[in-house]
């Protein structure tokens, strides 16, 4: 539809899934922000050699590994997730609501009811004690998960915590968090003091 309207070329920056390029009928160039963010680490983070690159979840481990290899640093991966607060369940974010268990299923007749799968609590694989933690991701949109990860990293002894991402659209929750600095490119405008734009 966009190509029919005259679009002849698409340029993206750190596209979330490379396969998306195949859905366009015109050429797509995906530019990488990592050279700029790697340069930021080397030039602007004092003692970056004492850092560990942290993947906020197993899905971002490939990106974290790429950064760690280029900088010759160690890597840590965060597994699990923060438990939702009771207010999260009430406000409708996790629709449909959980239904009370039917008493007719207790007899053993009908479809068995299995307990809901629970994600394990946050766990960090890798040593970050006494080091700088640098979380890398493609975008900062779900700030609660970054803040929860930063709290765990701080508890485990990380003395400084940075978040580096291509796209940053994070609310004020970052200001009161243990995250020392968030570095993003200028793909999305923002006005938070804790977020530095590196261009």
TrEMBL record:
Keyword annotations from UniProtKB, A to Z: Nucleotide biosynthesis
Signal peptide: none
Organism: Timema californicum (California timema)
GO MF annotation list: ATP binding; magnesium ion binding; ribose phosphate diphosphokinase activity
CDD domains: PRTases_typeI
Alphabetical list of NCBIfam families matching this protein: ribP_PPkin
A single GO cellular-component term on record: ribose phosphate diphosphokinase complex
GO biological process, one term: 5-phosphoribose 1-diphosphate biosynthetic process
Family under the similarity heading: Belongs to the ribose-phosphate pyrophosphokinase family.
Pfam families referenced in this protein's UniProt entry, alphabetically: Pribosyl_synth
Name used for this protein in its record: (California timema) hypothetical protein
PANTHER family: GH23275P (PTHR10210:SF53), RIBOSE-PHOSPHATE DIPHOSPHOKINASE FAMILY MEMBER (PTHR10210)
């Amino acid at each position: 539809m966009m190509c029919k309207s005259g679009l002849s070329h698409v340029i993206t920056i750190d596209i979330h899934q490379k396969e998306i390029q195949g859905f366009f009928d015109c050429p797509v160039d995906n530019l990488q922000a990592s050279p700029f963010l790697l340069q930021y680490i080397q030039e602007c983070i004092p003692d970056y050699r004492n850092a560990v690159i942290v993947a906020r979840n197993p899905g971002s481990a490939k990106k974290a590994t790429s950064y760690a290899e280029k900088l010759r640093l160690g890597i840590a991966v965060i597994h699990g997730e923060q438990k939702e607060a009771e207010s999260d369940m009430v406000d409708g974010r996790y629709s449909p609501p959980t239904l009370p268990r039917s008493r007719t299923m207790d007899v053993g007749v009908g479809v068995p009811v299995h307990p809901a799968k629970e994600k394990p609590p946050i766990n960090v694989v890798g040593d970050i004690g006494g080091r700088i933690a640098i979380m890398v991701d493609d975008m900062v949109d779900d700030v609660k998960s970054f803040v929860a990860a930063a709290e765990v990293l701080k508890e485990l002894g990380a003395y400084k915590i940075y978040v580096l991402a291509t796209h940053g659209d994070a609310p004020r929750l970052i200001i009161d968090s243990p995250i020392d600095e968030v570095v993003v490119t200028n793909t999305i405008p923002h006005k938070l003091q804790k977020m530095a734009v590196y261009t």
